[in-house]
Amino acid sequence: MKKAKVVIVDDSPFSIAIIRDILIEKGFDVVGEAGSLEETIRVVEEKKPDLVTMDMTIPGTDGLECTRAVHSINPNIKVIVISSMMDDEIIKEAKKNKVSGYIQKPIDPENLITEIERVMAGEELFEELNEIYPKVFKEAFYDNMNRFTKTIPCFNDEVKENKGLSSRGISVVVGIIGKYLGRMIFDLSYETAQNMAKSILKRDVKDIHETLAMVEEFANIVAGNACSMINRRNKVYGLRVAPPTVFHGKSLNISKTELETISLVIQTDFGEMYLNVGFKRGDNEWM
Q1: pLDDT digits 0-9 by tens, 29-48
Q2: 4-aspartylphosphate (modified residue): where (predicted)?
Q3: Structural domains in the chain plus CATH codes
């Protein structure tokens, strides 16, 4: 990833010096500085930066008005707020004004560089994710099936698809947020789920609720482990899983999605299982 051209907007010369030194040490090109709305407009028009770091407290204005001015010049310029203030209302307003990231002072150099890399990461990072995630999710599924049941699953060939499918009976949907938004679906029949739960519990399953709880937790662990493995490869991804949602019943359908997904049919000692995972380009979840 190329190093971005950066303009620093802050009314404190001390804060500007700290940010400038961090960025220069990491190879970024600091092309300008500003301490007011007028200076911000002038420097951005003149220097044409890729990124602006923005303080929220600017004499006679604020960081959000300066952000709007930056985007009126070029809506593709990324803005990262660096401020001593940070609360839910400020973050909400920052997002409404198309701020790409938010860091609270005092500045941690590693956090600042990671945030800039996350914000500036382009198509190549998404292509990297597309290349690695099928293998990573397969590895997470394989490892956890072996840990929980001491059995070895067998994967059929990966299929890239985006179409509606009929559920086998139980579907767990796990949302994924971070640099890119994604989703994992784990699908299996009631009988397969009961067989697996019985193996893990080493006793008969009490009721359907216990079976569903097992399927939900297994899917959550697979997705969480996979996201952690991807984050270790590149922390810019910042992937996190949302609480799983379980659907079950007859005539249950898995709807088509906007995501670019891969599907796997998995043969296990307990029956056939299905895994569908995908991510999409677009705005990311940055807080």
Answers
A1: 999 999 999 999 999 999 99
A2: 55
A3: 5-120 (3.40.50.2300), 124-280 (3.40.1550.10)
